[in-house]
């Protein structure tokens, strides 16, 4: 079948993207789903910094590539061997298809699936195949999803079935922003009631972490960002304090208002300076968690003695250390119960043809989560 999709052919074109147009809206050939694969009609796809980092070259990926990894849609057809999904099912798509058999999967850590990571790096589906092409030229998949398109063929393992009454434009956010941000709090850091928390970087993932910290019962949530607008937004979601990261004494401010440093600090900005700030704001005996993805050649400078003498912990968190089949339904249930107001994160709805302008807004820090809505 033919599908309209946003294709990246050249990495690193200069902003503004409304002018340079790194994403070309093109008609692609989409093959039928193979064994263990599913054809999904995409109904909503969120714009994420992980997409932007491919566009600007921070996270190099093979091109040409059909971008988009945070999405929800409706199953239209299933390939051979898929017995637990059928046409009409509503699904959230997740960006690490976990095989269920490798070492990390067997240990209950599907976010670290080795075949899934290999396929994502190569621009293929979990099977190793590509189902997209432009005039017979193969087009790479983005993180096994390629959701900035009218339809996508994905591995069965990329799908989490959800109840059909959840609006799909909200459901999309559970595939990345919520899964990553809330998961970093409850799965990676295991924040306990009464602990103090700082969140550095208030994009969709960072603000999801604010929601997660409130859900977990943190007594203090310090929001940290360069944007006063984002700081004010975080306060509406439950942050108790705000510090502008541009202040030269930002770490001292956080330590002062938290009484010596927070129990857990989260870096959600994807910049080394943000991680250094989060680490500096963490109390003795505390934990610093990073879900940011800076450039692969970035390096962090820390005094190792602080990790020993202060019993500090520095942890990474990928997809919120999630088990998607468990966590997506849980988070959806919490949203329905009014305890996880994910709907407040959705600030812009746009058409596929306006996606380059959307990435300009994302780059400039305007709004929180933008979603491409397909009719």
Task: Characterise the protein shown here.
- The model has no long low-confidence stretch (mean pLDDT 97).
- Helix 6 packs across helix 12.
- The protein has helices at 17-20, 49-55, 103-106, 114-122, 168-171, 177-188, 204-216, 228-237, 250-257, 272-280, 304-309, 324-336, 355-364; strands spanning 2-8, 23-30, 37-46, 65-66, 70-78, 90-93, 132-134, 137-141, 151-155, 159-162, 196-200, 220-225, 241-244, 262-267, 282-290, 313-316, 346-350, 369-373.
- It is an alpha/beta fold.
- Strands 3, 5, 6, 9, 10, 17 and 18 form a seven-stranded mixed β-sheet that branches.
Q: What spatial form do the alpha-carbon principal axes imply? A: globular
CATH level-1 class of the largest domain: Alpha Beta
| End-to-end CA span | 18 Å
Could you give me the name of the CATH homologous superfamily of the largest domain?
A: Medium-chain alcohol dehydrogenases, catalytic domain
